Amino acid sequence: MLGHVIWVTHMKTTIEIADGLLRQARRLAARRRTTLRAVIEDALREAIAREGAGEAAGAIRTHTFRGQGLQPGLSWADWAAVRERAYEGRGG
Question: Within the chain, how many helices (H) and strands (E) appear?
Fold first, then answer.
């Protein structure tokens, strides 16, 4: 008896999308002459790739000049602490 392997390549799910965003996505699909599904899948792939590369949407790109980056004890995830340190000693 031979075993059978079944690969599931697609899954159906239901999600709620804001009306305005859905309208924009549908117009984009029409301009690209593709499906709404393709537009949404492309957007998800891009978002996942950015996240995997450490460049999540809204992430801050940093540059230093003769420095070593963010000072020890600080994190870009804690913007209030970064801002506080940046303005430290400048009145207030």
Answer: 3, 0
pTM more than 0.85: no
Instruction: Give the separation between CA 57 and CA 48, rounded to whole angstroms.
Output: 10
Per the CB < 8 A criterion, the answer to whether 43 and 32 are in contact is no
DSSP state letters, 29-71: HHHHTS-HHHHHHHHHHHHHHHHHTT--TTPPP---SSS-SSP
**Helices 19-32 and 36-52: crossing angle, nearest 10°?**
100
Q: How far apart are CA 47 and CA 38, in angstroms?
A: 14
pLDDT along the chain (92 residues), means of 10: 70 89 95 94 88 61 69 78 81 61
What single letter denotes the amino acid at residue 2? L
